[in-house]
């Protein structure tokens, strides 16, 4: 990324973080809940804490750059769209941590474990309140768009985009679980999970919402936008799977091998099983889905992968998909503004080179 683009992204992130704080302050003051309720405001506080605790806000940056494809003028509707995108992300984090039984998220307790500590003798209550917290985040995500400062037709189109995106993401979560009950997930299944679970809400929806806010209907470029998002999603998921085994734990701030212990049939697992011999296969399969798998066993699996050239082949694959996405974006030049097209050209290439 050029210095100018990174500076633009940084300013966008800083501005949004301040806006997100103000949003939660306003919701807390206007929450329509009975005065006797303690659980409702506590739920909102947990969502606030998780939402503000961290995150790269890249979806918000993509949203703003999508609007810049059309115009460089400030657009009020972008604030509501950004809130909606990040609230949908919060919903996904809450439910993902419940599904994965994850204790931590963004350097603190996950919502699920916060409730488990709050109700140590009532596990079903903790589970139920976690589900409801995620549901509340989703409802707030759609409400933000309904209250957007935009013409009614634009608000309606934005809500339609985000509703479809939420449904696609839920399907993605379902097939993500289903994938791990498949003996050998093929490449197309992995691509499909990456598309539904990640690409559609992280890339496609921000693109569509940004264009709508700028007064352009995304249907005119639907095929290109979907292909771009899909390719970026695939390369990004490959990078995440690669880093889980071959990354630097100190840089990432979490231990390696989490996906292996959780039994996830990831791109990394598929790449390993495609090249190992019978003895190595037994080591990999013994570690897969074993929550008590030791760091020494994870290191042994990593060594097998390195010996078989898996890191190099995975890096080559993720770069190939990133380059394909970049080529799709380059084709937007005749239609849209140069500075924003350049951002979308560079984004997939930059994403696969990140180390965390």
How does this structure look, described?
With 356 residues, the chain is mainly α. 74% of the residues lie in helices and 1% in strands. The chain has 2 domains: 1-173, Farnesyl Diphosphate Synthase; 217-356, Farnesyl Diphosphate Synthase (Orthogonal Bundle). The chain has a two-stranded antiparallel ribbon. Helix 1 (3-30) crosses helix 3 (58-68), helix 5 (111-118) packs across helix 6 (123-146) and helix 15 packs antiparallel against helix 16 (338-353). The longest helix is centred in the N-terminal third of the chain and has 28 residues, at 3-30. The radius of gyration is 21 Å and the shape is globular. It is an enzyme of class 2 (transferase). Keywords: Isoprene biosynthesis, Magnesium, Metal-binding, Transferase. It comes from Streptomyces murinus. GO terms for molecular function: (2E,6E)-farnesyl diphosphate synthase activity; dimethylallyltranstransferase activity; geranylgeranyl diphosphate synthase activity; metal ion binding.
Query: Could you describe the largest sheet, including whether it forms a barrel?
Result: 2 strands, antiparallel
Proportion of residues in extended strands: under 5%
| Domains, number | 2
Output the strand order for the largest sheet.
Answer: 1-2
> Shape, please?
globular
At CATH level 2, the architecture of the largest domain is Orthogonal Bundle
The run of helices and strands is HHHHEEHHHHHHHHHHHH
Beginning-to-end CA distance, first to last residue: 16 Å
Low-pLDDT runs: none
Average pLDDT for all residues:
94
CATH-defined superfamily of the largest domain: Farnesyl Diphosphate Synthase
